[in-house]
Amino acid sequence: MKRKRYVLKTRMKVFLALLFLGYFGIILIKQEIKMDDQAHKIEHLKEEIAQTEEMNAELERLIQYTESEEYIEKVARERLGWVKKGEIIFIEKKNN
Predict the structure, then answer these.
(1) d(CA 40, CA 48)
(2) Taking a C-beta distance cutoff of 8 angstroms, is the pair 43, 49 a contact?
(3) Are 83 and 89 in contact (CB under 8 A)?
(4) pLDDT tens, 2-39?
């Protein structure tokens, strides 16, 4: 006895092909959306890195400045009232 072969009808083949293509199309779209979000995150992180590097450079310049003789003299004059030999300090009276 011969077995009957099951043959898919043309409509069923088209339906399965469309289902298959639709499934992979949806997956492709989801991946594109996810990749776009990640690209935006990467761009945002690059901007943050650039800002942090600028701030770091500014802090490095500030460290260099605070270690200089000029800064030490300025602080000594402003906060401690120190003067060099031969200098005269004029103190302004405040009227209340």
Answers:
(1) 12
(2) no
(3) yes
(4) 777 777 788 988 999 999 999 999 999 999 999 999 99
